[in-house]
Write a structure and sequence with these properties.
The chain has 12 helices and 18 strands. It has 359 residues and is α+β, with helices and mostly antiparallel strands. The protein binds adenosine monophosphate.
Length: 359
């Protein structure tokens, strides 16, 4: 980017969920306008957008309108079609680059990219048949996770195997819906950590502190900062995140999820080319949140400092959990964030809070 976006310029965001909403808030604080495109009429981000385009991601006329309105385009959802990002990139800068989106959308492509960049992952192989699955499970001593290559999130589209017995394998490939699959070796991890990192348009890289994550029913429940890991493990996490950003010539914020092994080594589980749920704590415990950091990056502004002024624990409010909000607000040193979703549904992310645990 030759020069930063001027105040009053418009940032386009593909996707209008809570991540888009929090990006819109950060953009507003830096003096920018936002235009959001989302297929759902009741998108949380629409409430805060200067312009809301309620259209499908492949609606060429709507994308043309978005390009007309915006100075730069970003996305908050990694399953935005790559063709959409590429179409917009013909007219406007699109950050993170569409290649990053393409890499992250397919677990097989993602792992091949990571390994080529010198970053370790679980052993894996592509699965198109029960023979592939049987061979793969035998090579992983019977322990593996079968996943859809695309569109999986929050543990959806996955099946764990603990044996290569024919009875377990029979029907397993068809049951995944006839889509391309990947088998990963089952990793005997001791904990799961993630890190939020950013790369500016000048190539500067900034990495937040790694966090420790706990999942419930496949959905992130709690992120604790700092993670209880050794300095060597934290350094390996930071180096992997920086390596990924540089290898993708990335601009924007990325979330990288890791498995920590018994010997302190790490394997990358997956990358999210966007702001990430496990980075929500930054709005409460850092001067510059992941949302502002992303806006800074895509607007061509200098990246902000990633230092943490407090230890903290972030928890998601899923479904009925949101009813705790009035009680949570009684606590000192607790930052509550609700997403403005009118209907409570089981499994739906309604908000989160960050409890500051030290100063
Ligand atoms: P994912 O959708 O790939 O993030 O997977 C969801 C969760 O499943 C992860 O957070 C892990 O707890 C577990 N998981 C995924 N892949 C593996 C693996 N290869 N080995 C062990 N556990 C896994």
């Amino acid at each position: 980017m030759d020069k930063p976006l001027s105040p009053g310029a418009t940032i386009g965001i593909l996707g209008g969920g809570q991540l888009g909403r929090m990006l819109a808030m950060a953009a507003a604080r830096l003096g920018y306008r936002v235009a959001i495109l989302d297929p759902a009429a009741d998108s949380p981000a629409a409430q805060l957008a200067d312009t809301f385009i309620n259209a499908a991601y492949d609606d060429a006329a709507a994308l043309g309108r978005l390009a007309d309105l915006c100075d730069v385009v970003t996305y908050e959802f990694e399953n935005v079609p790559v063709a959409t990002a590429r179409l917009l990139a013909e007219r406007r800068l699109v950050f993170p680059p569409p290649e990053a989106l393409e890499t992250a959308q397919d677990r097989l492509t993602e792992k091949i990219f990571l390994n080529a960049a010198g970053i370790s992952t679980a052993a894996f192989l592509s699965v198109d048949s029960e023979d592939d699955l049987a061979r793969g499970l035998r090579s992983f001593s019977g322990n593996g996770v079968l996943k859809t290559r695309r569109m999986g999130y929050d543990g959806k589209g996955q099946r764990v195997f603990r044996s290569a017995a024919p009875a377990d394998i029979a029907g397993a490939v068809a049951a995944m819906g006839g889509v391309p699959l990947i088998l990963e070796a089952l990793v005997p991890f001791t904990k799961e950590v993630s890190v939020i990192a950013a790369r500016g348009s000048d190539g500067a890289v900034a990495v937040y502190d790694p966090v420790e994550n706990e999942h419930r029913n496949g959905i992130l429940h709690r992120s604790s900062v700092p993670a209880a890991i050794t300095p060597q493990t934290a350094q390996a996490v930071r180096e992997a995140a920086s390596g990924i950003l540089n290898a993708l010539s990335y601009v924007g914020v990325i979330g990288v999820e890791f498995f920590v092994l018994g010997d302190g080594g790490v394997l990358v589980n997956e990358i999210a080319p966007r702001v990430h749920n496990s980075g929500h704590w930054t709005e409460a415990a850092c001067a510059i949140s992941q949302f502002e950091q992303h806006v800074r990056a895509v607007a061509g502004l200098p990246l902000g400092a990633t230092g943490r002024h407090s230890d903290c624990v972030m928890e998601n409010l899923i479904g009925d959990d949101v009813l705790r909000a009035p009680d949570l607000l009684r606590e000192p040193d607790l930052v509550l964030h609700l997403y403005g979703k009118p209907d409570i549904r089981p499994g739906r992310k309604m908000g989160h809070f960050t409890r500051i645990t030290s100063r």
